[in-house]
Design goal:
Distance between the termini: 32 Å
Number of helices: 5
Structural class: mainly alpha
Order of helices and strands: HHHHH
Largest sheet: none
Shape: flat
Oligomer: single chain
Helix content: over 70%
Radius of gyration: 28 Å
Strand content: under 5%
Number of strands: 0
Length: 145
């Protein structure tokens, strides 16, 4: 009986959100003149994005050429790459170290606890939405009218 009531309330809430989304879509629909203006701006925006892409490509090609041609740049690139590998090794190593500290049963227990908390939070937030929905029916009717 309680599940049937929750389903009705959930359906009612989903129906409200569908109607409210349609209402908002119509309320904030831009005028034809704005649509026409924006349609002229889209090619310009696309060209601007392409220009930035070209700039980034040129910059990276310049860096690549410098690394290939210049010994000092090549040494700097090697040091930066080595440092990035060290940082990655540290990051992954810490993860594996912590993972190896805990046995499989403990990991499952922690995972189950986290999943339980997530489910409780979802249930509580769903109940809170339903209560707020029921308490705000006058506001809902006002918004949809």
């Amino acid at each position: 009986m309680e599940t049937e009531t929750n389903t009705k309330d959930t359906d009612k809430m989903n129906d409200f959100y569908t109607k409210f989304d349609d209402h908002i879509r119509q309320k904030y629909k831009p005028s034809e003149s704005i649509n026409k203006t924006i349609s002229f701006m889209i090619p310009v925006l696309a060209s601007l994005i392409s220009a930035y892409g070209l700039f980034i490509e040129c910059f990276l090609n310049t860096i690549t050429s410098l690394i290939k041609e210049n010994n000092s740049c090549k040494q700097l690139a090697k040091k930066l790459f080595s440092s990035s590998l060290d940082i990655y090794e540290f990051y992954v190593g810490v993860g594996y170290f912590v993972e190896n500290l805990i046995d499989r049963e403990s990991k499952n227990m922690i995972s189950t606890s986290i999943t339980d908390i997530q489910l409780k939070a979802e249930r509580i937030s769903e109940n809170l939405k339903l209560v707020l929905f029921d308490a705000s029916e006058d506001i809902i009717n006002e918004k949809l009218s």
